Amino acid sequence: MGEQSKYSIDPKSGFCSETKTFHSLRNKFSLPPPNLSLSFSDYSLTLLRLSSTPDTPLLTHSSSSSSPGLSRDHLIRRSENLAASLRHSLPSLSKGDCAIILSPSSPRLPILFFALLSLGVVVSPLNPLATDAEIRRVVSLCHPAIAFATNSVCSSLKLPDLRHKTVVIDSPEFEAMEETPAPIGKPVDRGKAVKQGDTAAILWTSGTTGEAKGAELSHRNLTAALSALNADRPETEKAAEAVVLYPVPMYHSYGFVSCLKSVATGEKVVLTEETELPEILKLVGQFGATQVSLAPPLVALMAKSDDRHDAMMDGCDLATLKVVTSGGLSLGKSVVQRFRSRFPNLLLAQGYGLTETCGVAFRPRCPVECDRFGSAGRLIANCEAKIVDPSTGLALPPCSHGELWIRGPMVMKGYIGDKQGSSSKALDSEGWLRTGDYCYIDSEGYLFVLDKLQDLIKYKDHLISPGQLEEVLSSHPDIIDVVVIPFESEEEASEVPMALVVKRPESSIDEMQITSFVAKQVEEYKKIRKVSFVDSIPRNPMGKASRKNLSKLFSS
């Protein structure tokens, strides 16, 4: 990126015609000198001390409405006490050891993360609903030394035997570790100094193909992500005035990084495991939330307006709400337009990021940028991007469709236990991350995500975006949920688009009506050839459906 001053950069798009690279139009943020020994925990808690007052309420859970939650000093003290207790009770737990963590969202998690990271222990949060087989796979890849889990997880799963016994984090013993003061005047012996390049976290992702992979994120990666999000704060509010509701899970990069960022910058964080939209929106009024982070399907549900959905909104007080953020899956233009029409006073901020980039890469930072319907915002500071032709490998100019490549300080080190060579496939020798996403960046630097490259339907000589067809189908008032998958047609000797549709219970819509509805709005080759009505579509907590698995299921 130091070379960019030699070349001319378009001030509207950030595109450099000589290097075929997009540069961020944001002001650069500063990072600590790379050779300085510094953990992400120490960086975060130092920032927290500078950005808030001692009694600032920082962290609470939706079940604790009568309590103001943990204050800044209480949170820092608990984290330091826990680090000291772990160092004392588990002296052989050392820098570089990995800890798997299985727990629903809880105020204990940020405290535990900061404590472990300060000791140089690698944190790897997992879905508390993971199966025994999924946990065995994780263990085989990251070789954890210890597990931290709730009582309910311990009773429902057979956790593996590790070097240290499992620590139950909702037990009186664990609470005592948080409350036992470290010796006065004696700093915690943290063992070897933590370097910024050391691995801090292993976050799990399905990546662009295959089984879940563990992205190795360094302390510097996380520090860069926190700094980027803090520097790119929406202009609508100050950190001290923000009350952020997080229904997104903390084992996902979106929840993990966003929540720790909010804590470190002095925002008040409300954690919840609620997944139903009416309950989440009631919590907005209950806690006076100014911002809520929602998975894309919930944003789409919030945007729908009819008797059923209008009734669902009854009793939801959104007077304090200013911003709804969304990430993990692209929102279609029609969803954004419906949302803005229904909630004209709310800012809908849709960003783009991957687990491999600590969950951040592109995002809007002001109302004007949020109004670019269907876009995921502009490139964050200190980063570069390219749109690359998948066939030729050549970088393309603005408004061209291709694979998005990203380079910057928050890009992962690689994948843990990488026997399949996934790291070398994802990262090139110059530090570019191949995202596997089919996108374009327009003439003003806004990113539009079309689909996963692997999900494009290859119909004869054409490539069809399932996401585009899903957006069209979602606009039909009788369709509650939909996913488009490839279907092998013997008649056409090619893949064709097939729609799996969840219709309204009272609807009588049929296959012909759906195919006709789509055919009127897309090119001939893109039309839906087959429809199957289903009761529900399996999705992960971030709203993603596995088109690959569904295609196998409906093709068999």
TrEMBL record:
Q: Where is the AMP-binding enzyme C-terminal domain?
A: 469-544
Q: Which SUPFAM superfamilies match?
A: Acetyl-CoA synthetase-like
Q: Give UniProt keywords alphabetically.
A: Ligase
Q: Which domain of life is it from?
A: Eukaryota
Which positions fall inside the AMP-dependent synthetase/ligase domain? 71-415
Any single GO molecular-function term of the entry would be: CoA-ligase activity
Gene3D superfamilies attached here? 3.30.300.30, N-terminal domain of ligase-like
The Swiss-Prot or TrEMBL record describes its family as follows: Belongs to the ATP-dependent AMP-binding enzyme family.
Q: What is this protein called?
A: 4-coumarate--CoA ligase
Query: For this UniProt entry, which segments traverse the membrane?
Result: none
- InterPro entries, alphabetized: AMP-bd_C, AMP-bd_C_sf, AMP-binding_CS, AMP-dep_synth/lig_dom, ANL_N_sf
